[in-house]
Specification:
Elements (H helix, E strand, L loop, with lengths): L1 H4 L5 E8 L6 E10 L4 E9 L2 E7 L3 E8 L5 E10 L4 E9 L2 E7 L5 E8 L5 E10 L4 E9 L2 E7 L5 E8 L5 E10 L4 E9 L2 E7 L3 E8 L5 E10 L4 E9 L2 E7 L5 E8 L5 E10 L4 E9 L2 E7 L5 E8 L5 E10 L4 E9 L2 E7 L5 E8 L5 E10 L3 E9 L2 E7 L3 E7 L5 E8 L4 E4 L2 E4 L2 H31 L1
Antiparallel strand pairs: 1-34, 2-33, 3-4, 4-5, 5-6, 7-8, 8-9, 9-10, 11-12, 12-13, 13-14, 15-16, 16-17, 17-18, 19-20, 20-21, 21-22, 23-24, 24-25, 25-26, 27-28, 28-29, 29-30, 31-32, 32-33, 35-36
Length: 472
């Protein structure tokens, strides 16, 4: 302070702050894991640094990549598990090193493939079963318990089916049960596990429906309840479990506006409608809903003119819905959003942006539901169906369909990083008769250094005297 008053700004401090949610490195590395056709890639974390990606190429493929802590990507293995058609592949972890891939094959029939993926990324094909010889579209597979998995799908004439299978620890598949839970129209079925053996399936019928089933430990299926929660149009449903028996269903309704429906699902599978809110009166498409914390949920979607929006709501323990905040995170284009949790209050949205580029937006969502935009970056020039997952540290991976198949790693700051620098200014000079003469810095600094030394000795001497008096 003394130096500054006398006009010698010798010391100045610079502080560089990297906030949580910043995207300091939008492209750490990119690997083209498929040089030809690659559609609807579905990525899953295996173990350690290894990830697996199932996708539709000219046939059915699963590939593995190793993603290092610094974001570097190494291709590991690639297996063609289906030589014919393979559409809409959906991969899940079953147990140990065993993974299951449900897909639509030749003649649109339904298949399930198991593979073993080792911790070093090697892939071994295990078993393949054709569980539906008729039409099988829009498959959604989940792991229920033990080796039991359930596959919801749209069958012949768009009616709704549920198939259970048992996958052993060595990857063998045994078909268990099959139930037609909707005899009329059933499109885009979305299945989740609620509790115990109870699962819920939200789907687009002639209107909006949710049905519950009980899946026994041996794979047997018992239908429990069915509720029509929307009498009008209901498309692109996405259902999540919130807390207790409360589930939330986001969907596009009449005129493509955005709705959220809550239902309560009892332990015996009984369904009670709770609340319904129209959170978007304009266009609302390609919805992706995620539970944030407590009763707060967030819905990412594509709105009017395909711009990108994020809506938060609070869902009470009794299912009541309160709208909280809405942010337009991309004013130009925000299609096919995929939202995940990063750290603390920070969330990331991967999406197809302007010119079909691949974009990443980070936001802060507080426990009260308030939204603040943090950062935005472009990770690819061409991008369809981005699918983002967490790897480790600050590294995230995005699999997407470009001109071919790609996976890109990005860095998202998950801790506050502070860098402090100290600058010593030495621009001391004097002007005499128009000539500039450098000042003798030692001569100028010596008195101040001497004063500092005197002060240190004085303080030290005073401290010693005080201690001496105390001892006496």
């Amino acid at each position: 302070m003394l130096i500054a008053v006398l006009g010698f700004p010798l010391l100045s401090h610079g502080v560089a702050l990297a906030d949580i949610g910043d995207i300091p490195n939008p492209v750490i590395a990119t690997v083209e894991f498929e040089t030809d056709k690659c559609k609807t890639p579905d990525i899953i974390h295996v173990a350690g640094d290894v990830c697996a990606i199932a996708y539709e190429g000219e046939s059915g493929h699963v590939t593995t990549v190793e993603i290092e802590a610094d974001g570097g990507i190494t291709e590991k293995d690639n297996v063609e598990f289906e030589t014919g058609k393979c559409k809409e592949p959906d991969i899940i972890h079953v147990s140990g090193d065993v993974y299951a891939i449900a897909y639509k094959g030749d003649g649109d029939s339904g298949y399930l493939q198991t593979v073993e993926v080792s911790t070093d990324g090697n892939i071994t094909e295990k078993d393949n079963v054709e569980f539906e010889t008729g039409k099988c579209k829009e498959l959604d597979i989940i792991h229920v318990s033990g080796g039991i998995c359930a596959i919801a799908y749209s069958g012949d004439k768009d009616d709704g089916y549920l198939q259970t299978v048992e996958v052993s620890t060595d990857g063998d598949i045994t078909e268990k049960d099959n139930v037609e839970f909707e005899t009329d129209k059933c499109k885009t079925p979305n299945i989740i596990h609620v509790s115990g053996g109870i699962c819920a399936i939200a789907y687009e019928g002639e209107s909006g429906h949710v049905t519950t089933v009980e899946i026994e430990a041996d794979g047997g299926i018992t239908e429990k309840d069915n509720v029509e929660f929307e009498t009008g149009k209901c498309k692109e449903l996405d259902i999540i479990h919130v807390s207790g028996g409360i589930c939330a269903i986001a969907y596009s309704g009449d005129k493509d506006d955005g709705y959220l429906q809550t239902v309560e699902i009892e332990a015996d599978g009984g369904i009670t409608e709770k609340d319904n809110v129209e959170f978007e009166t304009g266009k609302c498409k390609e919805l992706d809903i995620i539970h944030v914390s407590g009763g707060i949920c967030a819905i990412a979607y594509s709105g009017d003119k395909d711009d990108g929006y994020l809506q938060t709501v609070e869902i009470e323990a009794d299912g009541d819905i309160t709208e909280k905040d809405n942010v337009e995170f991309d004013e130009v284009k925000g299609k096919e959003p995929d939202i995940i949790h990063v750290a603390g209050d920070v969330y990331a949205i991967a999406y197809k942006g302007d010119g079909d580029s691949g974009c990443l937006q980070t936001v802060e969502i507080t426990t009260a539901g308030a939204i603040t935009e943090i950062d935005n970056a472009t990770f690819a020039s061409k991008c369809k169906k981005p699918n983002i997952i967490y790897i480790a540290g600050n590294v995230y991976a995005i699999a997407y369909e470009g001109e071919s198949g790609h996976v890109t790693t990005v860095e998202i700051t998950t801790t506050v990083e502070i860098t402090t620098t100290v600058e010593i200014t030495t621009t001391l000079a004097r002007v005499v008769g128009g000539e500039v003469y450098p000042i003798n810095k030692a001569a100028v600094l010596m008195p101040w250094l001497g004063l500092a030394l005197i002060l240190i000795l004085a303080v030290g001497g005073g401290t010693l005297a005080l201690r001496k008096r105390r001892t006496q």
